[in-house]
Amino acid sequence: MKGLVSLKEKWYRLKSSSEYINFQDGNKLVSEYGKYVDFVNTKLDSWYIVNGVSAHPLNRFVPTDLKGNVLVKPNIEDYSHPINEKGSRVLNQAEYVFALTDYKKALDRVLFEGFKDCVPHEIHDDWVYSISYKEVFHVYWKFEDSDKWELSKGISDIESLVKFGLTLTPIAINLLK
Fold it and tell me: What pTM was estimated for this model as a whole?
């Protein structure tokens, strides 16, 4: 299962699966369904554990550091510094590798595919940043002068995202096994 589905659909898929036809697999069916129930009932403003690390709530959707700052993939050019007036440049390889490693670790904590940190946009004379899904809906938003991200209206837990047909990352799928 790669997509986020309702609890009813998940139960139906599990019961219909050929690996659960035998009665001896009943415990496995209940265990897997229980993990899914816990998963979809998780509040989106709560921290979560993935790969043994406590992750910021935003990290479910986009790569963030452990403080919730959204990370972008490091550009190698940003780690090159001029060394003389002729414009020769030298790469600060240690800094670049450190930033790339942090980004990859954060990427390994993302549970849903297709989200991105949007460029700021203006609403009612305020600049707003948002975490959006293919620019169809915004799950989190914040004002430019704020550090606090807010959940969008009507979105409170993972189950409230089912209607959008989201795709789970391989990391999320492994958490549910």
Answer: 0.79
